[in-house]
Amino acid sequence: MNIYYLTLFPDMYEGVLGASILKRAKDKGIVDYHMINFRDFSGDKHNKVDDYPYGGGAGMVLKPEPVFNAMDSLNIGDNKRVILMCPQGKPFDQKLAEELAEEDNIVFINGHYEGYDERIRTLVTDEVSIGDYVLTGGELASMTMTDAIVRLIPDVLSNQASHQEDSFSTGMLEHPHYTRPREYRGMKVPEVLLSGNHKHIEEWRHEQSLKRTRERRPDLLDG
Ligand code: ADE
């Protein structure tokens, strides 16, 4: 998979994409990350990427030229998802992460202004928000999405089963986990997990999953 980030702040990505599992996925050749600073495509001698809104009002608007020109420079044809990061977009969730994990090319457009010139939306296949709050720009949101997507690509995680049991993949939150020691500061590991009886363990985990989901996220059980 190739992932392209149209951004004015390519440095923001270094720490996140250059560490841990996202880095390993790149080192294994499973994914590649490409930062495109669309200021380089402004076509303006002052490298201007934003301008005042027609009709007046507060804030600046991202101009169309830098984004259209940067998109043209990618040369990747139609086989791509183009995602506009925006608080007005559809909410990001595990289902969308699973869908995007199957793509060959993903382009994230990251704005930093009051808004995008509306014509930029003609380039886009999806508008996505990571939550009902406003960030200073799309970068953190596109990194969050990258993390959720890349871990789902086959061979990125060493233990494939681990994401099939993730919270949300099953439609419920995950059951509690325990590791050694058996007892810590008076808190004991539930007997059933030590029993070696796999059927009982599975039943216990399912019950716990259901209990946790009912308590914390009853909305997930609706329907
Ligand atoms: N840009 C600013 N806020 C955002 C959000 N909540 N989700 C995605 N992109 C954003």
Automatic annotation (TrEMBL):
Q: What Gene3D superfamilies does this protein's entry cite? A: 3.40.1280.10, tRNA(m1g37)methyltransferase, domain 2 (1.10.1270.20)
Q: Name one GO cellular component term.
A: cytosol
Q: Where in the cell is it found?
A: Cytoplasm
GO biological process assignments: tRNA N1-guanine methylation
Q: Which reaction does it catalyse?
A: guanosine(37) in tRNA + S-adenosyl-L-methionine = N(1)-methylguanosine(37) in tRNA + S-adenosyl-L-homocysteine + H(+)
Q: Name one Pfam family in it.
A: tRNA_m1G_MT
Specify the tRNA methyltransferase TRMD/TRM10-type domain's residue ranges: 1-221
Q: What is its EC number?
A: 2.1.1.228
Q: Which UniProt keywords apply?
A: Cytoplasm, Methyltransferase, S-adenosyl-L-methionine, Transferase, tRNA processing
- SUPFAM superfamilies from the entry? alpha/beta knot
| Location, primary (coarse class) | cytoplasm
Segment forming the signal sequence: none
Give residues annotated as binding S-adenosyl-L-methionine: G111, I130, G131, D132, Y133, V134, L135
Q: Which GO terms describe its molecular function?
A: tRNA (guanine(37)-N1)-methyltransferase activity
Q: What does this protein do?
A: Specifically methylates guanosine-37 in various tRNAs.
Outline the subunit composition. Answer: Homodimer.
Query: Which family, according to the similarity comment?
Result: Belongs to the RNA methyltransferase TrmD family.
Q: What is this protein called?
A: tRNA (guanine-N(1)-)-methyltransferase
What phylogenetic lineage does the species belong to? Answer: Bacteria, Bacillati, Bacillota, Bacilli, Bacillales
